[in-house]
Amino acid sequence: MRHLHLRALPALLAAALLVATGCGQPSPAPTPPPAPAIDGEALMTVVRMLAAPEMEGRGAGTPGGLRARAFVLERLQATGLEPVGDGFQLPFQFPARADGAITDGVNLAARCAGTAPEAPVIVVSAHYDHLGVRDGEVYHGADDNASGVAVLLALAAACREAPFHHTVIFVAFDAEEHGLRGARAFVESPPVPRERIALNVNLDMVSRGDTGELYAAGTHHTPALRAPLEAVAARAPVALRFGHDRPEDGSNDWTMQSDHGPFHEAGLPFIYFGVEDHPDYHRPTDTVDRIDVAFFTAAATTILDALRALDTALAGR
User: Fold this and answer.
1) What is the rounded average pLDDT for all residues in the chain?
2) Which structural domain range is residue 246 located in?
3) pLDDT digits (tens, 9 = 90+) for 218-269
4) Rounded to the nearest 5 degrees, what angle is found at the Cα of 106, between the Cα atoms of 100 and 110?
5) Are 144 and 276 in contact (CB under 8 A)?
6) How far apart are the C-alpha atoms of 115 and 241, rounded to whole Å?
7) Per the domain annotation, does 35 fall within a domain?
8) 85 pLDDT band (50/70/90 cuts)?
9) 4 part of a folded domain
10) Which of 61, 67, 271, 314 could cysteine-pair with 218, CB 3.0–4.6 Å?
11) Distance CA 138, CA 31 (A)
12) 137-138/133-134 β-pairing
């Protein structure tokens, strides 16, 4: 995460948002179905596995990265969701070293069919790679981004139990730490026509409640998405904040700092959930024991509530 405009809202999304918000006039956001509880221990089980020493920091293309891929693939398949296209794996290639050597990457994706198959698609994403081993030290990446993957898997399971209006594609991106390579490959060659993608909801660093705040970035670029999220913020068990998405924020503008960036470049709306940087960001000390489990569980619950609220708002219900 955080590697130092929306030009045109797609017509389908714009129409849905106008209906949902009363033709552009402020109005209360529709109330989505109640979100089921998130199992905090299940979240932590995933984080412990991905941040374990044997994963060797999950560097893209490394043996540890391959082990992480196999684990996430098994968990994604266990949700009972459908494969995307011919399978759950979407391979791509990228230059991982300064000498230009080509490395194989694999995005992992599953499809949760919506109740309205003709509606546009929502893409929910989180990257599973991290920094690997550097100077003999393992960069565990518990918050960045084992936490996001754990929440993605929880959302996928929730969708399987209670499908959304929109079909949702859940994708775990590879090679985020190499310049958002997995996300770029996905946007360049998506498994559905690009014009059918209504929204990307990206999760990157969502478990560290050092300030008790979770941010939802992206509403500056798509203001119509703010109303349903404000309704979520009013009832959220964490402090859900907005911001980090304006050019004047400088290095604190997160618009291009995680996997939602390529969606934004392609003119697709995004909402990015994450916490502000903490002292263990991109350090070997980003370990499981630093996670506030209560905050993590509450953040995951908030994200599920937000995803259902966005699904409802986009449907104009």
Assistant:
1) 91
2) 11-23+42-315
3) 999 999 999 999 999 999 999 999 999 999 999 999 999 999 999 999 999 9
4) 155
5) no
6) 30
7) no
8) confident
9) no
10) 271
11) 44
12) antiparallel
Query: Is position 183 within any domain?
Result: yes
Please determine, for residue 31, whether its predicted confidence score (pLDDT) is greater than 80.
no
How many domains is the chain partitioned into structurally?
1
Compute the Cα dihedral for 47, 51, 53, 58 and give only its sign: positive
Instruction: Kindly list the distances between the CA atom of residue 271 and the CA atoms of 1, 85, 98, 186, 301, in Å, as whole numbers in the listed order.
Output: 15, 25, 32, 17, 16
SS (H, E, C) the chain: CCCCCCCCCCHHHHHHHHHHCCCCCCCCCCCCCCCCCCCHHHHHHHHHHHCCHHHHHHECCCHHHHHHHHHHHHHHHHCCCEEECCECEEEEEEECCCCCCEEEEEEEEEEECCCCCCCCEEEEEEECCECCEECCEECCCHHHHHHHHHHHHHHHHHHHHCCCCCEEEEEEECCHHHCCHHHHHHHHCCCCCHHHEEEEEEECCCCCCCCCEEEEECCCCCHHHHHHHHHHHHHCCCEEEECCCCHHHHHHCCCCCCCCHHHHHCCCCEEEEECCCCCCCCCCCCCHHHCCHHHHHHHHHHHHHHHHHHHHHHHCC
pLDDT at 27 over 80: no
Give the pLDDT confidence score for residue 21 in this predicted structure: 39
Q: Which two tokens stand for residue 317?
A: 């219900």
- Whichever domain contains 56, its CATH number is 3.40.630.10
Q: Dig out the tokens for 127 from the structure.
A: 């990257």
**pTM of this structure:** 0.90
**Strands 82-83 and 102-112, bridge-based pairing:** antiparallel
